[in-house]
């Protein structure tokens, strides 16, 4: 009997949430049970999708600003553990929640710095409104590279649904060689991401648990199956996430200081002046010599200007001010803020 291994083609109209959920489930069935009859596979996928009520469409990427309103309580859909979709971002971008980009959870370590192990909860430096506690083996920016790729793979499926990838494909996506040593390095990073426990709060939305829920590795094919805790969706659904330009980040190579600053600035539309010591703490840059810290940060800003995240910067004795090359959405956000400010000023003048 000829086996149809194709998935039903998409219609010209944008599929609704039930159709998307069915497509996700059908894809999973195809990967895990390729010998299953195509009609049976589609029927099971449709049945599974019909169990969940239609979800609201995921929000577009939020504007680069700090959220001030607490997130709404979990919906009945979330409480019942039904399918929750990731927000969607462009193929040339990578995304994570603000608490990761706006803290030193993934610090800028150099090759000579040993990783630290925190057997008890360690408070990680972060911006105002964000609190991050961590227990486990210290991460670094190369770990963040892997984590961002894993989130990018996972965002094609709902939270909590297992996603599959090969070690070879992930290493290629990272721009790494694919030898045995690289496979071992990648596995060690995945284990570290699974083992580290975070307790992060972003403006009264709190998540505690692991960044990755764990998974399975086929030792013969080096294929992985992992999942992301569906409770982690709360931070995404509250709009507390941002994306960064993947090509810019890759162009920074192994410069961990520049990469950490790139992630941090990517959450801002118009960052104000920053004290050098403050920036060093926010990206986990450790150096006892303040002069060396300042020089390292300035060199990193030169790199950010080279990859065109920054149009320029101005370094003073104790602070540094940056000018970002805005994306269209960031420029639109700035215009909206200016309009709101003028309307507010006009109302105050009329009332005064």
Structure description:
The protein is of the alpha+beta class and 352 residues long. It has two domains: 13-57, no CATH class; 58-66 and 84-329, no CATH class. The protein has helices spanning 17-32, 38-51, 76-79, 98-101, 141-154, 167-174, 180-195, 233-237, 246-251, 256-265, 276-282, 290-306, 328-351, and strands spanning 93-97, 117-124, 130-137, 163-166, 197-202, 205-210, 215-218, 223-226, 241-245, 274-275, 310-315, 319-324. The strands form four sheets. It has a four-stranded antiparallel sheet. A three-stranded antiparallel sheet has the order 4-8-7. Strands 10-12-11 form a three-stranded antiparallel sheet. Strand 7 (215-218) and strand 8 (223-226) form a beta hairpin. The longest helix has 24 residues, at 328-351. The chain starts with 16 loop residues before the first helix and ends with a helix.
Give the strand line-up of the largest sheet.
Answer: 2-3-5-6
User: How many domains make up the 3D coordinates?
Assistant: 2
**How many DSSP helices?**
13
Q: Sketch the major β-sheet.
A: 4 strands, antiparallel
Share of β-strand residues: 15-25%
SSE diagram, text form:
Elements: H1 17-32, H2 38-51, H3 76-79, E1 93-97, H4 98-101, E2 117-124, E3 130-137, H5 141-154, E4 163-166, H6 167-174, H7 180-195, E5 197-202, E6 205-210, E7 215-218, E8 223-226, H8 233-237, E9 241-245, H9 246-251, H10 256-265, E10 274-275, H11 276-282, H12 290-306, E11 310-315, E12 319-324, H13 328-351
Antiparallel strand pairs: 1-9, 2-3, 3-5, 4-8, 5-6, 7-8, 10-12, 11-12
